[in-house]
Amino acid sequence: MPQVAYYVSSYIDLVRQGFIKEGEILNVSVPTGNFGDILAGWIAKKMGIPLGRLVCASNKNRVLTDFFVTGVYDIRRPFYATTSPSMDILIASNLERLLCFDFGPAQTKAFMESLKEDGIFSLTKEQLDVLEAEFGCSCCDDESTAQIIEHVFKEYDYTIDTHTAAAVMGSTGKCMVVSTASPYKFAPAVAQALGVKETTHEALSKYTATQIPAPLADIYKKEIRFTRVVDKADIKKSLYLQ
Q1: Are residues 72 and 122 in contact, defined by beta-carbon separation less than 8 angstroms?
Q2: Does residue 187 lie in a domain region?
Q3: Chain-wide mean pLDDT for the chain?
């Protein structure tokens, strides 16, 4: 629920900056795996913020993309570890809330039971039409993510993280891209995308002429308190249990 405020605030900011006029429809592209942030955008739209298409931007784990295209939610698929790990999700728990809003609790319960028992559920054409009226979708793999990071930096002198890159990929028309993380949170992947040889926070900071966020920079000044390393096979016997 607190994320709803971001959409209200951002829309007002864009009006004040002259990017849009008050009341003008604005599309939104949101990087999401668990569907929470984009659901907040949908709620803001229902509350009266003039938002248009809500683009659900995914990575290689494109279960949501396939769902909005076909109406079939199928988790019986490979799971990929990507450079945008916050979207490495196959069961988007917040999608259940949208389904309940649109199709009611009884139908949603049937969907979720089917997903739990069979790993799949399907919408009717009429149900899919309801979602397609408001939602768009896109997805990009790690290679495309890196290309977008490089393009945005060269074109706009702006450094984005791997999740924001997925949202840029999905942007369409006059669109607000929801940026959900600092590039320093995923510094190795961002640095590699920009061709920086050293994939450290310091190297990324120097190359992009941006500052490392203070809480993160402060970590390097902290004393290393824990140095013990335990092999996986020895974890149980290494626990301090009485």
Answers
A1: yes
A2: no
A3: 95
